[in-house]
## 1
Amino acid sequence: MDLSQPLDPLAKTALWTASMRAREHRRADRLFSDPLAEAFAGDEGPRIMSQFEGHVQSGVEDPALAVRTRFLDDQLLRLDADGVRQFVFVAVGMDSRAFRLEWSPGVLVYELDRPALLSFKEDLVRDLHAPATAVRVPLGVDLLGDWTEPLLAAGFDPQQPTCWLVEGLLYFLEPRERDVLLRQLTDLSAAKSRLLADYVGQAILDSPGMAAWRERMADQGHPWKSGSDRPEELFAPLGWEVHVSAYGDPDADYGRWSDAAVAPGLSGTRGRYLVIADKQ
């Protein structure tokens, strides 16, 4: 399927992510099921995936996306089971969790992203006749501008515990943009809210082994702009109690991380992180 409307380079990374999830869905030993991912990726997603894996990763399939997706799926469903009924997916892209996860009745999922990308996604959802498994509220917003007012106007209740999912976003932001976003999320978070995110270490980002990756990302119009070697220090001053896992840790492995190739010059795999932050 061709893109029916133009998407900017950063928005196209959502198609790439969907393509990787579609590939995982096809595996006999898949870590999660995502039957919509192939349609959401279209023709462009596999093209971008092939380009990066062929020219930057030397044909090696990076398991990070599969591990990250399963890790976050488990966290989301655990919160649902604990009674959280308000979820906000920040920079949702072509994520299909509002369709594929088994949510409890009454769960609200707010999907935030750029208007053009969400419009494209809504056209696909309509064409596919895909039923949501939660009460889904898509909101086209500028996450670097005023997005809190549209969220509140759509029914978001800042007095209720919320789960914020910030996946595949923070490293695309300048440090100041990242810090402003985290402050905005904090200001809207009631006690017992949780924030789920992924991030990359600055040392690994600046390492020689990442040079080709960063150059390719920049050339394609979506550079990685920030990282942190101690991501907990970004959240703790805002009042969050933070647990950080690195890919390959016992809770973020799923039998896949041993297959990952570590670029020459990098000391191990610590440096790519999954963050769980709880508001006290």
## 2
Amino acid sequence: MFKILHIDHIGIGVNDLAAIKDVFGEKLGMFHQPEDEVVEEQKVKVSFFPCGDAELEFLESTSPDGPIAKAIEKNGGRNLVQHIALRVDNVEAAIADLQAKGVAMLDKAPRYGAGGAKIAFVHPKSTGGILIEICEHPDRKAH
């Protein structure tokens, strides 16, 4: 059995990460990590903005065939909320429990995402069309 601890982050696909960092960092005054992270496997450049117990995760595609580029294209070229991430205490147990309940998973086993998190995505057909990421940060305590 697994436990959802809290909303970890909201993933937002963007066309121009530098412009978004200017809006949220400079204009709105939100703190963000000074360095962006590139996740080659997912073809994205990522910037996190902590907001209370959660974060805003802005994702810019590093390739025209990346999942974020495709999602933005499907959205008429506009930025979009791409996923909601739920922090869990054990991502492997979450995958097993969800599959046992008939929930379709995009990832049958965890993989590594930004910040070294163990992640897996739930198929949107099982969640009313909403892409949900389950994630575990082994090196961080729950809020």
## 3
Amino acid sequence: MATWTEFAAATPWLASSIRALLHQYGPGMGYLATVRADGGPRVHPVSPIVTDEGLYCFVIDSPKRRDLERDGRYALHAFPAEDSDVEAYVSGRAHPVTSIATVEHLARSHRAAPTLDWRLYELTVESALLHRHEAGAHPHTWRDPAAGRSGPAHERRPRKPFLQLVAA
């Protein structure tokens, strides 16, 4: 799976558009889907953190965290925009962050309460999607070529820059 940095290097416009949607209200806002032990989906609101170094999420002790510890697969959907019909989605695997410096830096900069039992995860990217719903529109997607999934890795460029998509 690609890191956020690798994904952003492969498709800068798509990564910056998704980052803008995740942080459209200031702090990151989205819905994190995980896989329950019985194989069903579990969805919770989260505050993802997108930096130039990676895509991260603090996860408290919860069924969601146990899902990530057991399976690791996730899907992250940006919180819906109030003024547009643009959607963003990223999926891949979550990995616990073991770098103490990274954990401390993100905990300080994002005010993660030290009294809570949370763990920081890096979310690697297997696929990403940006979609504006309009007649005849096609989603703009990216798939990590190294992930080994069938089908071509491809990118479709939007007809308008992302900021115009949101403002339209």
## 4
Amino acid sequence: MCQILTDSHLHIADEGFPGTYGDYQSLQRAVSCTASVSDWDAQSGKSADNTVQCYGVHPWFCGEWNGDVAERLRSILASDGRFHVGEIGLDAKKGDISEQMPAFIAQLEIAKETGRVATIHITDSEKEVLDAVRRAGCKAVLHSFSAESYAKPFAEAGCFFSISPRILSRSDARIIRLLGSIPDDRLLLESDAPHQGRNFTSMGEFASRIAGFKGVPPEELLRTVADNFTRVFG
């Protein structure tokens, strides 16, 4: 049976992409995000027809955010209705989230105003991100989601959950608990390439491992994830 491979988060503008991504060329659909404004032109020049482009300023680079950048982001989004917002968010491990918050909120508001999806980075800031997403009311994908205790409120806020290879460093019990907290109709899979780590060799293999933890055939999981991808990004 033909596998339908999708990847909801990677970075084609990053040096070294795609790295050790064995079946990257076999992806039917993918989402590429930026971290810094300097990535925007590079991503535009490298994107393929099957790649959904997201533009944004990552919390690590929140100092880049200003009025001119905001207007440039609006202009990029206006140029193509298939473009979205990301990677944005909050990271309490690397920096002060009070300093990151203005850029995050502003980009959420732009996503809401333009009817686009926001791809969100969350590190030790689940409550703050949840509150912001609830206020903004925009459609959101939670990148490399790992906080099962917040899955229910995020699901109630309409969010989708993108699982990355980072979860494979957990115990089997913790992986099963995380996957069990996520509604099937909100589940996405990602590589975060070229930052996929040593636990990832291909999307097909990663999906097979996740399917095993969920107790479903890999083809069924891939179909569910592909359907969810289409519901989010069209």
